[in-house]
User: What shape does this take?
Amino acid sequence: MQENGANAERIMVRGLVQGVGFRPFVWRLARRLGITGDVSNVGDCVSIRAAAPPEALDAFAAALAQEAPPLARVETVERAPLPAFDAEGFAIAASAPGTVSAGVVPDIATCPACRAEISDPAARRHRYAFTNCTDCGPRFSIVEGLPYDRATTTMRGFALCPDCLSEYEDPADRRFHAQPIACPACGPRLALEIGRPQAGDPLPGDPQAEAAGRLKAGAILAIKGIGGFHIACDATNEAAVAELRRRKHRPTKPLALMVRDRAMLDTLCAVAPAEWEAMGAPSAPILLLARRADTPLAPSLAPGQARLGVMLPYTPLHHLLMEALDRPLVMTSANRSGEPQIYRDAEARHGLAGIVDGVLGHDRPIARRLDDSVARVAAGAVRVMRRGRGLAPAPRALPPGFAPAPSVLALGGELKSAVCLTTAGRALLSHHLGDLDELATQDAFETAIADYTALFDHRAEAIAVDLHPEYRASRLGAALAAARGLPLVGVQHHHAHIAAAMAENGWAVDAGAVVGLALDGLGLGEDGTAWGAEILLCDYARSRRMARLKPVALAGGDLASREPWRVLLAHLDAALPVELRPPGLFDGLPAATVRAMIARGINAPQASSAGRLFDAMAALLGLAPPRLSFEGEAALALEALAAAAPAAEGGYPFDITGQDCLTTLDPAPMWRAAIADLRRGETPAVIAARFHAGLARALADVALATATEHDARALALSGGVMQNAVLLEHLVARLAPSGLPLLVPAEVPANDGGLALGQAAVAAVRLMGR
Assistant: This one.
């Protein structure tokens, strides 16, 4: 019964509050504070009826946000008075009909309570590899339908034992309504298959202990994780790492690591407090960390790289394996070169034959492939480079002004593809889907579109795509729009990059124009040429090109992105005579043929590409082989060299000229200064640092002048080149004193993995007629 002196309120909590243990949290909080009433899921929020004295209601409402469960993200707590109602105590009520969005949250790393449990010999889940609770464990990777219930997950084949059922039904238990709940008596089981996996039978005994022993002895194993299989080996064993590279046809691309704990990590990398905090987050991403000079790691693990991609164990299986090992493990995606990560058991047995010596698997199916998320700390924030396991899906509120917009399905670009769904002022950016230049990835991309639209019951009213008509995503979008009779909205590549930064940072639809710096490899411009180093004046609906890097020829087209010497040749031929260059730069290379291609305009398109400028500088400094083995290889080496140099004073100059309302940044004086330094014997590190500093100064000067002239209200930075921490930090340092807000991607990748969000935002505003 409601007591005298008590007020009654309806409290609506919005955000990521379903499927994260929020209702039992509310139940416990209400009991603690003497609140009567009930809590239920309604739509996509949590609805609470609460009765108590005013001061208790105030404390209750404040605690809903301040003490929320670790997986929850409270956006708003809305309070409204209610007529008095009768209630005995506080209850968890059944969810309202139509509550179908509940519980689709990212997969979460093992929580401290579950880690303690698997280490406790007295616990019934001691050493159990599938231990989880409402605060951790698989979520998105096991969901097959909604509402989120065990029957709509890949756990439906595992009937609960009496002990697990008791925990599942007890609101005071941390496993109340934990859909993946399991124990050794009723849950999934591990199996280790050795030899040719398609013909192997599970070995008897303890699969974890046997796998750990074989890894110590130099074996290469596939290990089934939350979102797919990894290929693992001893990261300190050069023979094992070299053999893995040979089998995977992956000659130099860095391999990710898993370490047991902070003590092991400290022997390999220098770790700042913010980096350690990011590694220990519930998403448990791979974090790029500065490597120490003297480590026990195999030399071929990440040749020439100043940073290592490292993650902590994020499943009980990983924790148990790493506890049995005294060394870091390589944990790289289990796939054949260029293909998506394998996540089905049959695929692992057949597709990894000849690559691994065995498979450590289990019988809990994975509903969808999820690559590990990748991030780094730069310019004062954790910046996501790849959204995958632990981060997707994560619906986010769009800025003010988007609520009335039509629902949009945006399909992103050609590389690092992801899709975005928007509706009712919210956006859902998918996990990383890969590069669409492989048939297997194209199939996975189409499957993901169907998966997301069905799972989230999304009914698109328009399709948004990149302007490039030959992108596979653009072609698919055009076909979908035609088949469904929907509008097709083409969005210029760099406008989409800037719009994504605006949307992530809460820039309202009517907040005014921003000046955007969009730096990447290539994207089709509105004039039909290749862009890649652009300063734009834009809002969501419109974009105007204000400045660019001076275009140079990319001899061989796409081949120039894999052979940086071609771009260096074009830059130097435009900047200074042959006699002023270091001798032998192009010895043994078909320089004459490339010059002829450029002179005749044969397969040598002009492009204003920041990415290719970095590649060319890396080639000048001897950091780029004649042919790269992976995307970003040259630019990563250049950034690492610059980061290791003393502070650069001033940086190299760029000529800044204007014509026809378009400013051009000409790197010719930069090349002359860099080569003069090189001839004087200056170190490559100093030259790399001066290059970064000079480019940042030129870009910042033009951006600030543009903002002043056109009364822009903010500055936005995006594009794949903005993942270069040295450049980004130089730009932030030069732009921040202006006082204008800086809109920089953090949770959304600055690279093409964030394009779909920007496309969706632009399309939504255009369709509103703004």
Summary: Residues 190-362 form a domain with the DHBP synthase fold (CATH 3.90.870.40). The longest strand covers residues 514-524. The chain has a mean pLDDT of 94.
